[in-house]
Amino acid sequence: GDHLGTVPLGYRTENKKLAIDPTTEPIVREIFSMYDSGKGPNAIRKYLSSVGHDMHSRSIRGLIFSPVYAGDDNGRPCPAYFSKEEYQRRPQEKSTSQEMTAEKHISFQG
């Protein structure tokens, strides 16, 4: 079926289907690489902002946990950035707990 709705970062539409966008692909790969190395959405947002790509940390979190990057566009197959197995192994709460701990630590130093 055809892709409906907003086109996710790292993709473009070709013949109404998602295809990997070579222009934004490096940004998406960097986001996943940073997350997999232990960085949370706020740290990723700060890095992206420093290189001229402004994104809200909620958007980054949504991207990290979106099944579209594992090839599932609302039940329709699409090009994947990584395998379904890699997606399922990704810790789903890692960024939230790490960031909240870091933010609490910083706010209580005061």
- End-to-end gap: 54 Å
Rough outline: globular
Counting DSSP E segments of at least 2 residues, the number of strands comes to: 4
What is the succession of H and E elements? EEHHHEEHH
Average per-residue pLDDT, rounded, comes to: 83
Main structural class: mainly alpha
What is the share of helical residues? 40-55%
Count of helix runs: 5
Strand content is 5-15%
Rg from C-alpha positions?
Answer: 15 Å
The main β sheet shows up as: 2 strands, antiparallel
Low-confidence stretches: 94-110
Spatially, the strands of the biggest sheet line up as 1-2
In words, what does this structure look like?
This protein has 110 residues and is mainly α. Helices cover 47% and strands 11% of the residues. The chain is built from five helices and four strands, in the order ββαααββαα. It has helices at residues 25-36, 41-50, 57-64, 84-89, 94-109, and strands at residues 11-14, 17-20, 72-73, 76-77. The strands form two sheets. It has a two-stranded antiparallel sheet with strand order 1-2. It starts with 10 loop residues before the first strand and ends with a helix.
